[in-house]
């Protein structure tokens, strides 16, 4: 590995959100542009992806927008996901099932409240060699002193129990944020893996409070937790790999006060340490953006229902009036967007704490080994097996990325990176 050039075999992102509608059209091509050649797609769409056919329909949409990427699909753990559906999904090449505790993150209203009822599903997943992906938080509970700051710690007992009850089931603790999560995964068998995001290798809780574009679930924790994440990446341990949790949201969803000010026909100045003050649109354009966001969301819900719910009735937990309430009384959406500059961001980060020599293992080899996903020769370009080349540079992340009626703010907006993709 040269000092000014880095070659990586087929980087893979084992946790990415690519959304729907116009947002999907904007961000899906960014996956390849950011250096990713294999992407493991999250199923928390509206409605959630709970059938094999819905997952295949979704993959078809993604392949049209970015045919160079190998899209690995998942199902959303839900009562519709039966043992029979698992066998059907396995035969169709669906790789895993994602569990969301009810209400803890974006589009998790259909999430689970107890794992016990899904034990027959997990048993078949174990037999079919599928992966169970766990959003590792429990819902907040003031009476038990459970909040977003300690919800991951309280979840770890569930991970341990599932590992014991299904010793051959591959399980991934997604987007770990705490030292306790790292030590727990290290203590469990090789069937337990763990994804780590780029942003959690940089952020701490102090970075989140003043900056909505740093707010995500699970929330960034204390410096000692960040150090644990960095140390395990630096060690090269094969159980830990890149899962970006890149989660784009429209500008107005990340700054709800901006939408509120627009409805009041007022102006609002917003500034931050990431140079986003220049991105705030004028009052007239904000009104247009608010209207567009509402229309886009309603249209996307209708289209995806038709495409993903063929032959199904109303999904449990999904109600249009709930979506209308969210639009009228918004809170800051949870999610950090990293896809377009993902591999250069990760390279810059790892170099900053002395782990650049582990880059290829973290962004490709470790995850591929755990998921049993070899490099896809059919996706290779020019015989290079999807190798990505980085060179040292002074690439600056833009303050905003615009699409058709949608805008997103990338992680590290305005920041200079140390690396860029050249091929």
UniProtKB/TrEMBL annotation:
Keywords, in A-Z order: Hydrolase, Metal-binding, Pyrimidine biosynthesis, Zinc
GO terms for biological process, alphabetical:
'de novo' pyrimidine nucleobase biosynthetic process; 'de novo' UMP biosynthetic process
**What GO molecular-function term can you cite, just one?**
metal ion binding
User: Which species is this UniProt entry from?
Assistant: Tremella mesenterica
Residues annotated as domain Amidohydrolase-related: 13-276
Q: What protein am I looking at?
A: dihydroorotase
Under the heading Pfam families, the entry gives: Amidohydro_1
Q: Does the keyword rRNA processing apply?
A: no
So what EC number does this one have? 3.5.2.3
**Amino acid composition bias (Basic and acidic residues), ranges on this chain:** 303-318
Record carries keyword Protease: no
Q: Where are the transmembrane segments?
A: none
**Per the record, GO CC terms?**
cytoplasm
Q: In which pathway does it act?
A: Pyrimidine metabolism; UMP biosynthesis via de novo pathway; (S)-dihydroorotate from bicarbonate: step 3/3
The UniProt annotation puts the region (Disordered) at 303-330
Tell me the domain of life: Eukaryota
Family, as annotated: Belongs to the metallo-dependent hydrolases superfamily. DHOase family. Class II DHOase subfamily.
